[in-house]
Amino acid sequence: MKMSIQQLFRPDVLAMQAYHVADASGYIKLDAMENPYHLPAALRQELGQQLAEVALNRYPDPHGDGLKDLLKAAFAIPDAADVVLGNGSDEIITLITQAVASDDTVVLALEPSFVMYRLNAQFSRVRYVGVPLQADFSLDLPATLAAIREHRPAVVFLSYPNNPTGPRFAREEVQAVLDAAPGLLVVDEAYQAFADDSFMGLAGSQPHLIVMRTLSKLGLAGLRLGYAAGHPEVIAQLDKVRPPYNINVLSQAAAKFALRHLDVFAAQAAELRSERSRIAASLATLPQVTVYPSEANFLTIRVPDALALFAQLKAEGILIKNLHGYHPLLDNCLRLTVGSPDENSALLAAIHAYFA
Ligand SMILES: *Cc1c(COP(=O)(O)O)cnc(C)c1O
């Protein structure tokens, strides 16, 4: 007798909803923290020529050593640190969780934050502890330290700045978490290009610290390239659970190309930061809107009726992210990805018209 689907798959998997990505065709797409810009035409042509030379018949360089050296130089990764590459930083979260998972392992994260921390804990069957942020989305240090003492997590995940809320936590408080955590602290710096601070300088010298980043929010979400820097002995363990050829040859070649043209992406990030200020200032003039400070390429806002505004923007062809219903602290919150100046102006016009 064949097993039925119900018999075959884990109850928690059967009960899950698949990760939902909205169909965005035809919309102004401000829902997924993507960089709005395609590569400039001249660079596209050069990239095309370089990719045409890539040996697709060969397996990729399993260690990505050339790419790691370029990443270390481009992003000031300390010499004391080693680097592991992931198929997006999503995969690095998976590697870290798998490498620590055993019967009594606990993974801890702040909430609301990036859902993959919790989902990976579930997939690896480790106990997950979520510690709520404060109402203004700052870190609740006493509650976090108490939870660390009580649960002794093998890993604490902390997004710096935090998605989906926007602010960066106080550096001293993150340092206090690092000092108190018995296990690893993963500082997820997915939004580093838009932020004013980083823990990268400590990578390698603080054995329990892993600093994780991605090229996605910088403008290369389609490449799927994440990286994490940490103490060589820690990175060596992650490397053992990494699928040997996780970064394909085209992604390795395209990432090397992009790192040689980092000035293009840095200029775009600078423009997005200044657009972020423009949107925040414009929305702050509306008494119905609370704008949370952000060091990412999105702004989280709270309005009287998030679903109504979300629906109105969608009807006008603008797709943003509804956060209402994800966590009690996100009641009536929406997340606006910073787009191109034209896209942002369309967004602002629609929101102002809605409240007029
Ligand atoms: C977007 C995001 C990631 C995932 O990035 P990828 O490299 O595209 O997988 C990781 N962490 C946070 C906090 C993010 O917002």
From TrEMBL:
Gene3D superfamilies linked to this entry: Aspartate Aminotransferase, domain 1, Type I PLP-dependent aspartate aminotransferase-like (Major domain)
Keyword Amino-acid biosynthesis: yes
Modified sites of kind N6-(pyridoxal phosphate)lysine: K217
Molecular function via GO: histidinol-phosphate transaminase activity
Pathway: Amino-acid biosynthesis; L-histidine biosynthesis; L-histidine from 5-phospho-alpha-D-ribose 1-diphosphate: step 7/9
Catalyzed chemical reaction(s): L-histidinol phosphate + 2-oxoglutarate = 3-(imidazol-4-yl)-2-oxopropyl phosphate + L-glutamate
Record flagged with keyword Transferase: yes
Cofactor: pyridoxal 5'-phosphate
Catalytic activity, EC: 2.6.1.9
Protein family: Belongs to the class-II pyridoxal-phosphate-dependent aminotransferase family. Histidinol-phosphate aminotransferase subfamily.
Protein name in the entry: Histidinol-phosphate aminotransferase
Natural source organism: Vogesella amnigena
